[in-house]
Write a structure and sequence with these properties.
By secondary structure, the chain is an alpha+beta fold. The chain has a five-stranded antiparallel sheet, with helices on both faces. It is globular.
């Protein structure tokens, strides 16, 4: 079962018109930069809410739960070991950078870019996405 099948089967408490606004916003944000590859919004439990582009995430139903597991595990470890709050997580591969940030209100956002994009650019972009999510969800 792919993410599209999950979308058709469950609403995850997000109305279709809200989901459409989120998809449009993600498309706008991702299309602003050729080096930003995609973004996904998931619940704290790892259920996909919106993502763009479709072909990047459509057959990767294990990706969104993995984001939630990573974020929740690292957040718990930070609180226990360092007595602090998690801001964001960065994962770098040979070719890509993945940034994961809790957006509050039960949502996690992840942004994927080509390697070489400055972290401050990615961080500002993910903060802009989170701000837009808050505006849309009002």
């Amino acid at each position: 079962m792919g993410i599209e099948d999950i979308f058709r089967e469950f609403s995850f408490g997000v109305k279709d018109n809200i989901r459409e606004k989120l998809l449009k916003m993600l498309k706008t944000e991702i299309d602003r930069s050729k080096r930003t590859i995609g973004a996904i919004i998931v619940t704290d439990e790892g259920l996909p809410i919106a993502y763009y582009p479709n072909d990047l995430f459509s057959d990767k139903s294990g990706f969104s739960p993995s984001l939630a597991i990573i974020e929740n595990t690292v957040e718990k470890s930070i609180k226990e070991l360092l007595d602090g709050d998690l801001d964001y997580i960065t994962i770098a591969t040979n070719n890509h950078i993945l940034i994961i940030k809790n957006a509050g209100n039960g949502y996690i956002v992840s942004l994927i870019s080509q390697k070489g994009v400055p972290m401050n650019v990615l961080y500002r972009k993910i903060l802009r996405i989170i701000k837009r999510i808050e505006e849309i969800m009002k």
